[in-house]
Amino acid sequence: MPGKRVRRHFSQLSEFDRGLIIGMKAAGWSTCRIAGLMDRSECVVRNCWEQWTREGTHARKTESGATRKTLRREDRRIVRQTTVTRSTIRADVGVAIVPQTISRHLAEANLKSKSPFRAFPLTPEHWQLRLQWC
């Protein structure tokens, strides 16, 4: 049948192929033209380009779990601003993140978001003994 599309077998894109797709797309080539040249589906080319524009990387994802909402640059910006409030950090980063995300980034950088106790809290018995001493 002449009008039937040929199904391409499943195979992962190599780093080189991903780089080629991004280079051709950045040069203004159409998705259809790139797919025909690389012998891939248009969906593969589109997904590779969308990942590049969204995340700034073309590397395959290796970690499992939810995707991160912040880029590495934004993570570094969060860590550098340890002296300001979380709402200020959220406004500066420019990404919709919750306060727990900021605390987690600070914890990953071995920074504590809470100040330590300056003195141990006194028990009622300690208060009585101090009052008697006075």
Automatic annotation (TrEMBL):
It is found in: Nucleus. Its main location: nucleus. GO terms for biological process: DNA integration; DNA transposition. Signal peptide: none annotated. It comes from the Eukaryota. Residues 78-134 form the Transposase Tc1-like domain. GO terms for molecular function: DNA binding. Pfam families: HTH_Tnp_Tc3_2. One of its GO terms (cellular component) is nucleus. This is Transposable element Tcb1 transposase.
